[in-house]
Structures are given as C-alpha cells and as structure tokens.
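For consistency, the fold was encoded as tokens, which produced the following:
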Amino acid sequence: NATLRIDNLQEPWRGILVVLIVLFLLQLLGQPFAIWRTFWLEARFGFNRMTPDIYMLDFCKRQVLGLALGVPALVIILLLMDRGGVWWWIWASLVVAAVSIGITWASPRFIAPLFNRFSPLADPVLERRVTGLFDRCGFSSRGVFVMDGSRRSAHGNANFTGIGRNKVVVLFDTLLNKIDGEEIVAVLAHELGHFRLHHVHERLAASAIGTAVGFASLNWLMNQPGVVEAVGLPEPSAPMALLLLILIGPVFAFFATPLRTGWYRRQEWAADAYASRHADAGKLVTALVKLYRDNASTLTPDRIYSRFYDSHPSAIERIERLRAFAGTE
C-alpha cells in the first residue's frame, strides 16, 4: 500500500507533519477574514490595489518560505523536547531567538525582495537630505531604496529594516507622492530614533524572553500529575505539547496586551523626541497630518480602547507634544 499514513511515520516526522497540518488549517480559517479585509474593507476606502493573482502568489510564497525556515527549527525544537532533558526549554528558546534574529537580518536582502521590487532613490536632492540626516545621527546603512508598495496598497510608509550591517532605509513609492522632502526626512528621523535608541533590539530581546517563559511554563505543566490526562493525551507528547502552547499561548498573552502597548507607546514618544532633536518637529507634524488624512486614520480613538490596543499614541497627542518640541502653539 503506497498510501502515506501519519501513523506509519516515525518521530519526529509524524509530530512535525501533525503540527504543520494544524498550523496550515489555522491559516486557512483566517483567510476569509483576510480576504474580506483586503478586497472589501480596504477597497471600500480606496486603499486596496491588490489583485487576486498577487494575493494568491503572496500566500503561496509565504507558505514555501514558512516551510523552508520553520521546518528545520521545528525539527530541532521537537528533538530538544524529547531528548534535551529538564533544561530543553532554554535551548529551544535560543533556537527560536536565533531564527528570529536571522530572519530580521536576512529580510532586506533575501526575503523582502521576494515580494516587492526595490530600486535606489532616484531623487538626488532627497538623497542628500537623507544622507545629511544620517551624518548628523552617526548612522550608516546599505542605502536608501524605494519599494513598489503601490502594487498592493495606497497606504504610505517608511521604515528601517534589517540589523547589524545589513540595514536599509525603505521608502514606499506611495509616500513620496504624499509628503515633501523635508517631511520625509522628519519621518525618517522618527524611524531612525527607534534604531538609535535600541528599540529594535529591545523588542527582539523581549520576544526571546516571552518565548522562554512560554517554553518554561509548558515544561512545568507537562510534568504536573494529571495535566496530560486532562488535555486528553494517553502519554506526554512533544508535538501535542507544542501545539497546546501555540493554541493557548495567545490567550494568556492577551492579558499582557496593555503592558506591551504601554511600552510601545513610550518608545514612540522617545522616537518622536529623537526626531525633534535631529529634524524639524514642525515638518513631522505636517507629515503626520497628511498621513493620518490620506490613510483615513481616526483622530479621536476611544481612550480606553486606544490605551489597551494601540501601540502608537493618538494623532492629537503626538501633534501636541511635537508642537511643544517645536516651540509652537
């Protein structure tokens, strides 16, 4: 019989296949909502430029990329859970941290180009302004690139991506059509503040700590009498334990949302303050006004909801503080 049955596979391959199937099914369950958000909600306000062909191609690329990067890490984690002894969770956490850092490093050069086209900034005046900002801040990167974000969305953005020497500055082509050169420099100064104030590294460290706490909690739970039986398993199983962590971890992480949100908001305040010292705070205000308007962002979010969920302060809060930095009313 040539039919492949999961029961006939040996560990860790059987466990890996089970985990991958469940994760894929969870992604499929989320697709109707993603499709609705892209092709109805975003399209309703004139932001969507994604075609069904691009959407499906992106989805397939993400699955292949996830398999290429995730399966080796999954093999190592399951082997550690089975054979790593009582301290397996430490080594597994280090594996996840290494993968996360590797992806962050590789993203601008190897991963992002799989989905978008990047071209060098063609505006010499803007390039000189950006280079001047870098000189003032003592920052170096592999270059300034324009991304074809308009193929998928009308939203504009700018960011720094990568770590170490593999950092690049990315400007969405849609952003260049919305704000002027000095405003772009002010926006970049804010993003640069996140790098110079080590926010990227702090978030990577926080993610690694969160992963370690999750693995340590799982290790403790699976060694408690009655827990294995309570979840319906005949005996301890590394793949099932890992799936349990993936499924219920977000439930417990939800209660930490306001703490994480508050931390992110403080980082945003710090990045705004950094931008006001190295660029024109007034230009950042005008850039924010244009971006909030063009992106149809709410200017008056519910205070409680915003403090719980929003990683950025509201537009009015940011503008008032930036005007204070600029010395204006």
Notes: DSSP finds 13 helices and four strands in the chain. The two ends are 79 Å apart (CA to CA). Strands lie at 118-120, 144-147, 158-161, 168-172. The first strand starts at residue 118 and ends at 120.
